[in-house]
Amino acid sequence: MPRPVTNSAKAVWNGDLKSGSGTTSLETSQLGTFPTHWKARSEESERGTTSPEELIGAALATCFSMQFSNMLAENGTPPTTIESTANVTFNIAEGGITGIELINNSTIENIEDADFQRLANEAKETCPVSKALQGVEITLNATLA
């Protein structure tokens, strides 16, 4: 039986919410430490600064792509390319994260669009990150190239 795997990220915040700043570190992979601050989250994203919503989007886009790839292979139609983007909307006036738009463009040989759409929707519903985000509406726009 596979053993559980735990991955870690760390955040350090200095100061109050609106004038403070912090960092987010990918601890397990050691791929980097990224600056963050309130403005990047609530007003406008800026180059070189991340937000919790961007990290959630990265996690969802990656998880969906992996899940979809596996399902397509099990269907006998392995993908050539799966490209996914997750746009996470944060609206403080509405209480935080208000929705996620998952956009997928895939190149797959010998698959009918109906099967492609069915498997894409199933992957969206069953990937572990989607399951963790059940309190947020996730829409899917999947295109077969």
TrEMBL record:
Region (Disordered): 1-51
GO biological process, one term: response to oxidative stress
Polar residues: compositionally biased ranges: 20-33
A family per Pfam: OsmC
Gene3D superfamilies: 3.30.300.20
NCBIfam families the record matches: osmo_induc_OsmC (TIGR03562)
The protein's name: Peroxiredoxin
